[in-house]
Amino acid sequence: SGKSKVTIVGSGNWGSVAAKLIASNTLKLHSFHDQVRMWVFEETLPSGEKLSDVINRTNENVKYLPGIKLGKNIIADPDLENAVKDANMLVFVTPHQFMEGICKKLVGKVNKDVEAISLIKGMEVKKEGPRMISNLISEQLGINCCVLMGANIANEIALEQLSEATVGYRENKDIAEKWVQLFNTPYFIVTAVQDVEGIELCGTLKNVVAIAAGLVDGLEMGNNTKAAIMRIGLREMKALSKLLFSSVKDSTFFESCGVADLITTCLGGRNRKVAEAFAKNGGKRSFDDLEAEMLQGQKLQGVSTAKEVYEVLSHRGWLELFPLFATVHEIAIGHLPPSAIVKYSEHKPMLS
Ligand code: NAD
Ligand code: 13P
Fold this sequence. Notes:
By secondary structure, the protein is an alpha/beta fold. Helices cover about 45% and strands about 15% of the residues. Strands 3-2-1-4-5-8-9-10 form an eight-stranded mixed beta sheet, with helices on both faces. Strands 6-7 form a two-stranded antiparallel sheet. It is globular and about 60 Å long. The protein starts with 5 loop residues before the first strand and ends in a 20-residue tail after the last helix. Nicotinamide-adenine-dinucleotide binds near residues 41, 152 and 297.
């Protein structure tokens, strides 16, 4: 048949909610196979059962999204190669630090005419410079890769509360529309925009600003301070995105992936929450420690992204142009105290 088969690579907190959105749509739309495979990074639960078995038995990801039914047409599969082998649409949604390893395992295993989309917020840094995750997927697997980013705290979308998102595409508007069809629901409003780099950089860089916002919360500063940090952060997001890719559009920062994601993450995200605890502890307990204790297996992206951004900035000689980004990393590694986040005006002015 000409129906598209969808596989989701990843099954964390957002991965599971993405599965729920997709599963509801493939049942309704004739252009997709009903059944959707979801690759699960296998683990054994305290009960002794395998996570993938429990998902298939209960239709719930009891570890990463408890209490929410995913849809009976979701099949959890712990075998990565098997999960992707018949797919012609691949949805990538894992913490960014695992994607290099996952791509290595997938080389030669996916069909060449597969279309991919990345929901992953992050980048990697190599000698050659920064590489966005959609680009890693695209280059390693020889396939086209769109992105989906937005103001999307997963637990809220799981409860079907209205949210918006942005799909980024390169040239092919038809492919972008197909992804919009797959994700869009009455409570999840998706818009396609032709600016992959801008959209992916928004999703990636706002996690560093969210760490800064969480530090401000932990220091018990008020809303004005937090708003100032968000404004300065947004300016740095825009300036760095444009320095890295001259094609990035100003209007992208006003889409869901831009200012809206920045706001929701700085108010209610995991990066914010753990950074608040970090500042409350005076920086004496590491982010790794707090992440393990507070997030039960879920992963932060902002701390490693701050490091990656710092490497890019220092390599290019841009550190003093981006005092907020640089300061977040220096605080995270213990070179500066959490309070340095509000000593910010002593630094040189940044790019406008
Ligand atoms: P998560 O934070 O829940 O991460 C845990 C996942 O990582 C689990 O599925 C776990 O099995 C897996 N994992 C652990 N070790 C692994 C390994 N060695 N190899 C492969 N996988 C491993 O994940 P998430 O919330 O689904 O986030 C995925 C991406 O989506 C991130 O880039 C995140 O920024 C982005 N995102 C998250 C949200 C959200 O609200 N959770 C919203 C929008 C975007
Ligand atoms: P956190 O990872 O900080 O929870 O942010 C989630 C997110 O990206 C919301 O869009």
